[in-house]
Amino acid sequence: MEAESPPPEVRKIIHVDMDAFFASVEQRDAPELRGKPVAVGGSSMRGVVAAASYEARKFGVRSAMPSVTAKRLCPDLIFVKHRFDVYKSVSRQIRDIFESYTPLVEPLSLDEAYLDVTENLKGIASATEIAREIKDRIKAETGLTASAGVSYNKFLAKLASDYRKPDGLYVIRPEAGPGFVEELKIGRFHGIGPKTAEKFNKLGIFTGADLKRQDAAFLQKHFGRAGLYYHSIARGIDHRSVKPHRERKSVGSETTFFVDIGEHDALAEAVKPQAESVWRHCERVGLTGRTVTLKIKYADFQIITRSKSGGNVADYAELERISLQLVAELMPLPKSVRLVGVTLSNLAPTAAVEAAPQLSLAI
């Protein structure tokens, strides 16, 4: 079999990430909110913050935080109702800017995307110049700021975009990539969450330099297939290409309990925030789905799933209703539960997205 050609050694990748996107749109459109701590969504005691302005973040307020916690951290926090139609409209403007430079745009959500500008529609040799132009155009056309990272692969470009936020532009050149990674705390690596970082720490791996000292066999032993990926990025290597038509097959959320649950009411209450998290993400990126799946892990680690399919789930209330129906059908529980999750699959763009086909890439 003929060997597959290796990827080009040097590509020009930009990661653009809007600064506190939802909150910044609200501050743009309501001058009285500018310079004040603002949270989008989460105004009820049981609500969850969807986004926070930088003024709010100084107090520790962040997305996915319960509103009651956010208010305790920042008593002067101003809650505003989300306006997803407006956010989608602004996202379309930004997408048009990206696509005027390259067709190789891989959206991660409404407010961030990768661009491969190795070859670009304007014939600009410098990726840094393109990133600067994009930032300037976003500011001029939407009144919002974005941060951009420029590097030779996706992993480093995303790290770079976060390095000088807000309104930042940072470049990691090929000769600087490995050294940049070595100095990073392991928890700063994109894709390594708190639990995985804790596992690394228990193995004596706290920085990129520590990670680089491990061989591939050791990392595979402890992290499975992901071990090879960690082995590569520790050396500043990431051959993933920018994929403009990446499709997501499902959206899910789950939680593990500190104490196992055995009663219907307790399990039903635990399911609701998982359904809310799933719907919040789907609403943010313009998706709906036809199949709702309930995942249960019992105390003995047995995993079961129950699903229900039908027409497209219309709103959060319907997703919650179906999720709770699936819980009810499991009663009485044969044993206590240690984890519960909700997933929405058979995804499709919402009507709003179908009315604007270019937004269907925002997954």
From TrEMBL:
Cofactor(s) annotated in UniProt: Mg(2+)
Record localization: Cytoplasm
Cofactor note: Binds 2 magnesium ions per subunit.
TM segment ranges: none
Catalytic activity: DNA(n) + a 2'-deoxyribonucleoside 5'-triphosphate = DNA(n+1) + diphosphate
Annotated Mg(2+) binding sites: 17, 111
List of catalytic residues: 112
Domain UmuC: 13-193
Description of how the protein assembles with itself and partners: Monomer.
UniProt similarity note: Belongs to the DNA polymerase type-Y family.
Protein function: Poorly processive, error-prone DNA polymerase involved in untargeted mutagenesis. Copies undamaged DNA at stalled replication forks, which arise in vivo from mismatched or misaligned primer ends. These misaligned primers can be extended by PolIV. Exhibits no 3'-5' exonuclease (proofreading) activity. May be involved in translesional synthesis, in conjunction with the beta clamp from PolIII.
Name this polypeptide is given: DNA polymerase IV
Organism: Sphingoaurantiacus capsulatus
Gene that encodes the chain: dinB
